[in-house]
Input
Amino acid sequence: MFAFTHLFVLCLGFLAFTHSRGSPLTFLPFPADVQRSLPVNFTIAALNITLPNTNSTGAPMVLGQDGATGGAQLEVLSTWNSFPYNDFPALSLFGGQLRAFTKRGEWITNATAPSRGQPLGWLTSRLYHTTATDYSVVPVYGLNLAKYVLAANERADLWSLCSWKGPRGQTNVVFDVSASPPNPGYDIADCYGVWLIVVPTLPPHSK
Output
């Protein structure tokens, strides 16, 4: 009876998810599938799951500029095409913390807590060390190479790519565009849903 109930819930969850996002991928959002740490470094590619798309590997993502504040530099997760620099070539996930490493392997950059309607932000600082623990990865099936996608608050289905207006506007990852504030800096109608594919790299991350 338990096995049947579990299978029934799984089918309902899968149907609801694919219907809401139009995604051909199998998504298993059960707690047992959520992983808050990975044993290897990785990069991220944004895979379009909304529009007709011949790119099966996704757009490579980097940490794009987002200004500065006292004692800290701010970044956002951007497409390499809109910000063709990569000062943080490796990411890691440890205990729900999403970390970024410099080309020298230094860890002074962390993802900030996800905020609905806002880009996936990062903070680089030698002064502040408080890090958000809201991130995880969940398995997907249906991709040739990908095994995991990035989730925030255990939701992997709320990421979108949105293009910022103005000169040198970047295309950034936004969490839950349905909750975007007034005048968010991007046109919601031009945003499209993506999976944030985890692409493993070597060597293993540092703790």
Remarks:
- Residues 2-21 form the longest helix (20 residues).
